[in-house]
Amino acid sequence: MILKAYQSLIYSKLKSLAILLLFIVLIQACSSTKYIADYQSIVKKVTIDSVDKRFEEQAYNYVQKDIRPLSAFSINVPLYNLFNTKDGRYKTNNIKPFGTPPAILDSTLVEISRNQIQKFLVGKGYFSAKVTAEVKVKDKKADIRFKADQGKPSYIDKISDSIYTANVKSVYNSTKPTFSRLHEGMQYDVDSLTYEREQIYRVMKENGYFYFLRPYVNFDVIETAKPDQVDVRLNITNPPKGPHKQYNIDYTHMLIAPSPDGFPDSVRSKLSKDTVGGVIFTDFSKRYRRNPIVRYDFLKRGDMFDIRNENLTYDRLYELNIFKNVKIDYYNRDSTSNKIIPIILLTPQKVMSNRVEGEVPFNGGTVGFNLSNTYTNNNFFRGAERFELQIKGGLQSRLGNGAKPFKDIYQRDFSVSASISVPRLIIPFYNPELGGNGMPHTTFSSSYIYALQKDISVRNIFINSITYDWFETKSKLHSFTPLNFEYRFGNIEPGVDSVTLNNNIYYAALLNRKDFTLGMKYVYTLNNDKLNQYRTFVYFRGGIDIAGNLLQAITSITGAQRDPERSNTATIFGLPFNQYVRPEIDLRWYKHLGGEKQFIARVNAGVGYAYGNAINYGIPFEKLFFAGGSSGIRAWQARTLGPGNYNRDVIPTPEARKAFFGLDQLGEMKIETNFEYRCTLVKKFFGATLKGAAFVDAGNVWNLNNSSFIFNVDEAEREKTLFKLSKLAQQVAIGTGIGFRYDVQYFVFRFDIGLKLKDPQFSGNDQWVIGKLFSGTKEFKESYNATHSPDTYRFVQYNFGIGMPF
């Protein structure tokens, strides 16, 4: 059978990959010494001895990288050995970029390392420090020991300064408490002096001293009568032409090149002569309106020069996403004047682009594809407005029971969406001054979605919204949608049999409903800018979606008669409207474990509650939650977990289970937790970095009231889907697994393998399905398939994706 051959090929490739990885791990114990010459040795251990515990790690960093051995658990050296050895020796040419070569002993590098460690200790106040290096070699394996005789540290007795310009001295003294690490009595530390110089340079650049340079700042270290004490004098010298001067901004030239090729010499004599708001704007390309560009020039006429405003201008002009190069030069017409003229040179990039993307989701018993075409115009109204038009289509097909791929298509989707994003906040009667921490945007969007569930329903959804995005700080992002209008109408397919319909009447009511939503949304995000950094921080994203309250008030004022509990809902233009509240949070703790190792703990929870006009219908179908999938509980395919202890064997026929595949396992509440350890496995792996992960996921979805979910099953079955704190432990699913991330800098390819540990669709000890994987697997699967056909039970779930899961 074609299908069996297809599945066999997939499993064969996965098995080959697993065997290869296992082989690499096994050869970790193999020595690399057989590949080197007899006179060479491989460094196995480097020890830093007799160095103050506070400085051991820093001292080790001065050991030259080429003689620094990798971790005993690293596979970089074995991988290098696999691809870069020939005839029992390391290759000298045609080196493959996989892994890392072993650390080979080099006496020159040992001496450089010894000298650098000694200098480091002197810089930490151990002025009489001496470091020796001892090398022991046995069986072509070398141990290096750097031993320090630190002596006594020196402390700073007095701190003085010699600052030649009075205004510079005043600025330094007024800002010093905000940054200085120097204080009398501290241990001498050259790093603190370097930090002080850098901060002084920054402060001067922020306070008008345009021509201030770092070499103007230096320190004298003066011996005292006491051998363990020194005095430090800060010197800020003057430039050759006299005292330091503060400069103010004169008018600004802003020039846009005629094309992405830049500025030809011939355009220099054609500058505009009109000065508006202190800016002379010259657009040689004739493509841009003045105000949307000039708005993000923060070098204002009359202001004192501040390097922060220059950086801010760079950032915002780049964020407009219409210039491929931004350069700011300065011109001083008169050497006696304290005014400088900024010249901002902007090189435009291509305005229009078209991107075609495709993906093939392959999860357990389904396969599908999505194809999209996105057209983008980054200067739609000549003011850096981003227009985007996307057309997307896809389908999903079942595998199994002898069917060929894409022969049993159960789901088709099509959507077309358009949006215009303006780089400012467009608010009637109000013009906020924003942009200091990030580019604000106003986005107008409209979309149409068509969704077909074979033999069940057809849904059509129109969505229109206006959204404001702005930064409170660099780490605090607000997104507010004051107007979100959704019009949806669904139809149950005429051929749906009564058994299928009756067993899923709740979902049938949602799918068949014609209504609209008028509401608003708000989302707050904290520390999104730190997600790609190796540091310890807390990430938070919280949002709330509210709908129907305004329409409820309007219908109340008009005196409309309604009784929602008896299906007599209020209508607008003849259609019922939704009324609900739907909060959701995503809370994560990122813990940096040193190097490129990281631990993440995450909680993702949400609830949808319908009330008022929708109390008898629940929240819209699209607002329900699901569990599982590549960014959730990865041991389960998306939409195949929960709600609660729900088991699909309550649907009596295979035809009914097949028809509602992926639709009947939704809930009004979700709680998911994820724990993931991340590390780098191989630095050089087919031209990129291979990273690994180990994870444990837990959670589920639930319903909140007894009227939800399946109507005609008995009371006990409905109870299983409801959230009750006393039954939480019995209703939580647990999965574990490992993952691989192929990082090519611009994006990450992700492959996760999830393994089910505890499955809440069963009861008692049977929930711990991991035991069935090692004992009685065949009998367990046969029993399951007999009551769940065409569903089959899979202990392992494969997840492919682009980007990190969270």
Characteristics:
single chain; 806 residues; alpha+beta; 18-stranded antiparallel β-sheet; 16 helices; 34 strands; globular; disordered N terminus
Short description:
By secondary structure, this protein is an alpha+beta fold. Helix content is 19%, strand content 37%.
Structural notes for this entry:
This protein is of the alpha+beta class. It is built from 16 helices and 34 strands. The strands form 6 sheets. The chain has an 18-stranded antiparallel beta sheet that branches. Strands 9, 10, 11, 12, 13 and 14 form a 6-stranded mixed beta sheet that branches. The two termini are 39 Å apart.
- Global morphology: globular
Strand content: 35-45%
Q: How many strand segments?
A: 34
C-alpha termini separation: 39 Å
Helix content: 10-25%
The SS-based structural class is alpha+beta
Radius of gyration: 34 Å
Main location: membrane
Organism: Pedobacter psychrotolerans
Pfam families: Omp85 (PF01103)
Keywords: Cell outer membrane, Membrane, Signal, Transmembrane
What is this structure's SSE topology?
Blueprint: H1 2-26, E1 42-49, H2 56-60, H3 76-83, E2 85-86, E3 89-90, H4 107-123, E4 130-138, E5 141-149, E6 155-163, H5 166-175, H6 190-206, E7 217-223, E8 229-236, E9 248-249, E10 252-256, E11 275-276, E12 279-283, H7 290-294, H8 307-319, E13 323-331, E14 339-348, E15 352-359, E16 362-363, E17 366-377, E18 386-398, E19 409-422, E20 441-453, E21 457-473, E22 476-492, H9 498-503, H10 505-512, E23 514-526, E24 537-547, H11 549-558, E25 571-572, E26 575-576, E27 580-592, E28 598-607, E29 609-610, H12 654-659, E30 669-685, E31 688-702, H13 715-719, H14 728-731, E32 733-743, E33 748-758, H15 770-774, H16 777-788, E34 796-802
Parallel strand pairs: 1-5, 6-8, 9-14, 10-12, 10-14
Antiparallel strand pairs: 2-3, 4-5, 7-8, 11-12, 13-14, 15-17, 16-17, 17-18, 18-19, 19-20, 20-21, 21-22, 22-23, 23-24, 24-27, 25-26, 27-28, 27-29, 28-30, 30-31, 31-32, 32-33, 33-34
Pfam family, one: Omp85
Domain Bacterial surface antigen (D15): 483-768
Keywords: Cell outer membrane, Membrane, Signal, Transmembrane
